[in-house]
Design a protein that fits this description.
- The structure is a homodimer.
- The first copy, chain A, is an alpha/beta fold.
- Chain A is built from 18 helices and 15 strands.
- In chain A, the strands form three sheets. In chain A, strands 1, 2, 3, 4, 7, 8, 9, 10 and 11 form a nine-stranded mixed beta sheet that branches. The first copy, chain A, has a four-stranded antiparallel beta sheet with strand order 12-13-14-15, with helices on one face. A two-stranded antiparallel sheet of chain A has the order 5-6.
- Chain A is globular.
- Chains A and B meet through helix 3, helix 5, helix 11, helix 16 and helix 17 of A and helix 3, helix 5, helix 11, helix 16 and helix 17 of B.
């Protein structure tokens, strides 16, 4: 019997792994994440399935690679045919509840085709990717009708049609109001008081909801929209760090051994790269980004305190992670995407309250973990059988519970569809010709780009991925081997989703039982 | 403007290409198929996307590869999220009508999840893969409640609870009734008169339906269950051919250059291979198989006569093909599957009534064609836009209309999931470890088998695929090149199905228009 009754699945948006102090040198101290790591296992090689919100999250929620769930970028709806954490829990009579962001786009065309009213109970679940919603708030645009944040702000005196634009991401500069969209303003504090910021609001909502559950078991996805841009932090977090705290910035381009890869070069033409490539901009923005992380850490401290006070730390599985990282000027790039570790390698902590996990508490685990492992881990913890014919991730409980026989992954995989990005136009490609696939093994990272040469990094000799060996003739054999690994991965993606493995096993060679006698004399 | 108002999409089941006389030496004369070929283009290199009914047909109906539609074998339901010919026509206010077999298994779990009543109009369409049904009859089991064939037989005096088993596939032997399941009986005539056989019944139904349409444009899928087993032909077709007409049989195993491939070897342990490996069995069964083909040809003659009489040949696009072939003892194998040309290369004739196709009438086209090309060809002919983000086939009208600039495929692809077959147990594999992928180029056929060495055939030196070069060291470079082609194919399968290409193009770099200002100073 597992001790797990509840699940808290915490996600941050655009939180970079090396800006979290439990992972070593970080420009931001994150004492509460260190506290969380002490309660569980800190995974050091956790990778997301795409370096951008939508596809990464759909992998987190379905337990499937991007090529399998098909939501290849932010604006791509999650197919109604996909099953999410909420769906699996639903079948078992439980719910996945959401407070915060999911980035799920509803497959409205399928709903119309199936005659499902978007406002019906079934429609709402499909629209929300299987989550039952306390408050959905996807951030970085004015809260839509689905979120209570705007009304909540107004009730606290932040007037206006759009209190988010006017207060949350706005600042006061020289006697007038200025927008946080302009990064020149991010050294100034938000016009909302800290307790009214996005991070505080969502933490309050989550804690209220957890308290309201009383003794009823629950599964909550607490999904923060920060430290994602706009990079406006409330006081005092806006001023907690100064440019001097930022430390060195990795200038770009740095690919020493070969001409820079065309796709990377194209990303340099995005607005965010044009800005962040200027060191002064990166040094101006990072303190705000760091302040937002410090604020998040403080609120995670509140969550931990409350869970401890309620006695929930002993029966709650906690998963903490991020949907991807952020360049913040490193390599002369801004934002996210591509396949560098700054983006696809994320913080990932699992606190398994089961006594069998006691021996691993406070340890670091260097084995590979993927975002798709979250769903099977949660289902395993709750004793709910998943769907082995659909879910491509693996439960991490054998790792937290020290099962020495647990098979470790020998590689992790990530994908990108840049068809929606300016880079596509820069490169003159059709929307269907913009796919990249990464395989990362212990020693190497290999990236297949449709229509271009691959990228290759020697992670032993070059852990910062500075020398792209993708065109280096001395590495032909390495590339061939990694490409082979990518081939095998593609060939074994889970495509047969409408019938499960047991049914196939039961039906094997069973035609005679159905009165079909093939080829008998 | 196209002249095409109607579409007749004729499919046979298990009809082998070299048993059709318009493709050269055939043991069966098929004069009506020659007549059909004279009206259009006979494609000489047409390949199905899997060598077994279900997945091959789902590719025909969706225009997508098996890895994309996910119905990897016969008993795998077609995902409700897939769009079929009927769906595309439906959106354009038209219908795809079915008379015969589809092998579509409804995705009942999805229907239940979406709250769609199976008996509703929407449920019926989803259940039937988008077809509106005149009569669905999948053959080789007693006609289910969906088919009118059993009642039709009873009305013609064939009494009994199961007139199919008792009459259609039954014979009289030595004064008693014997079953056509036993191949020893296939030299005897069916207990039904020829006009009451499956092929005659479905032809009557189709012609009645076409006549009833009057001047209303129509799209009909006339889908015969023959010459698929049970190999019982009605008189006089049962006796039209004798063992001597069969000609040489290709004994197996023949793979001279290497040990026979393990998957092929495992298929030898299937009942049908154990039987057909005996030359006497093959020589006993083939005349019945050939008789069924001759009967089919005769009924296709009726169809052509009627269409001519109705004036429909001038405004009806006709596509004629088969879902796969049949070993019939060649290579010592029975039935189908695997990737030899006897199975995956099919007869394929397109009669395009448009005057622009006049120049190609009666010609053979050696360019590659795939089963997935049928849907885009029909949609193109009717001026209905398909869905380029989902459909992986190509319209063949540029080929029938002699567009010299039409890009020819340089390869065709096919897949197999043998997880349901005895071969899986023979090989000791899990249900998820049984995938094969074929790429066939002009000169080579390469097959990737999960967990085993590949197969390779030199189609120039060895057009009958007798020498498997899959382990031949002299062909390392060829295999690497073909594997690369398979890699590129897998990497470019159409995974983003919920948003179309134009929407992506329109949304490219468009965040500023939505008030999102990323990374501006």
């Amino acid at each position: 019997m597992t001790a797990v009754r509840n699940v808290l699945f915490v996600m941050c948006d655009q939180l970079r792994r090396d800006f979290v102090s439990c992972y070593g040198a970080s420009p931001v101290p994150t004492p509460n994440l260190e506290r969380l790591a002490a309660l569980g296992v800190r995974f050091d090689h956790a990778y997301v399935q795409s370096g951008v919100c939508g596809p990464a999250r759909m992998s987190y929620y379905t337990g499937r690679y991007v090529s399998s769930h098909g939501a290849t970028w932010n604006r791509v709806p999650l197919s109604a045919a996909e099953h999410t954490l909420g769906d699996y829990l639903h079948v078992a009579g439980r719910k996945a509840t959401l407070a915060g962001k999911t980035h799920v786009l509803p497959d409205t065309k399928a709903l119309a085709r199936f005659g499902i009213e978007v406002e019906s109970e079934r429609g709402a679940l499909l629209r929300e990717g299987g989550f039952t919603v306390v408050d959905r708030y996807d951030g970085h645009t004015p809260p839509g009708p689905e979120s209570g944040y705007a009304a909540w702000l107004r009730a606290r005196g932040y007037a206006g049609a759009d209190p988010w634009s006017e207060h949350v991401i706005a600042v006061e500069a020289g006697g007038s109001v200025a927008s946080g969209w302009q990064m020149r303003n991010v050294h100034l504090p938000s016009r909302v008081a800290e307790p009214h910021s996005e991070t505080a609001y969502m933490t309050d909502l989550a804690l209220d909801w957890i308290r309201a559950q009383g003794g009823t078991p629950w599964v909550l996805h607490l999904s923060y929209v920060k430290p994602h841009w706009p990079y406006i932090a409330p006081a005092p977090f806006h001023a907690m760090f100064r440019n001097a705290d930022v430390g060195p910035i990795l200038h770009g381009p740095q690919d020493g051994t070969a001409e820079e890869h065309p796709v990377v070069r194209a990303y340099r033409e995005h607005d965010e790269s044009l800005s962040f490539a200027q060191e002064a901009v990166a040094r101006h923005v990072r303190p705000a980004y760091m302040g937002l992380i410090a604020q998040l850490d403080a609120h995670l401290g509140r969550v931990l305190d409350e869970l401890a006070a309620m006695g929930r730390l002993s029966d709650t599985l906690i998963v903490f992670t991020s949907d991807h990282g952020e360049f913040s000027g490193d390599r002369g790039l801004g934002e996210k995407e591509l396949f560098y570790d700054e983006i696809v390698r994320v913080p990932f902590i699992v606190c398994d309250p089961d006594p069998r996990a006691d021996a691993t508490r406070g340890t670091a685990d260097a084995r590979f973990v993927e975002g798709i492992d979250v769903v099977p881990t949660i289902l395993d913890a709750l004793g709910i059988s998943g769907a082995s014919h659909r879910i491509e991730g693996r439960s991490l409980l054998p790792l937290t519970r020290g099962d020495a026989a647990a098979a470790a992954r020998d590689a992790v995989f990530s994908e990108l569809d840049y068809g929606f990005r300016r880079a596509r136009r820069v490169l003159g490609r059709a929307v269907r010709e913009c796919r990249g696939f990464m395989v990362r093994t212990k020693d190497w990272k290999y990236i297949h780009w449709e229509g271009f040469r691959p990228q290759l990094f020697d992670l032993v000799a070059d852990p910062r991925e500075l020398a792209d060996l993708g065109a280096d003739a001395r590495h032909d054999a390495v590339r061939a081997r990694l490409r082979e690994q990518l081939f095998d991965w593609m060939a074994t993606l889970k495509r047969r989703t409408t019938v499960n493995d047991q049914a196939v096993a039961d039906a094997t060679d069973a035609h005679r039982a159905h009165g079909i006698h093939i080829g008998i004399w």
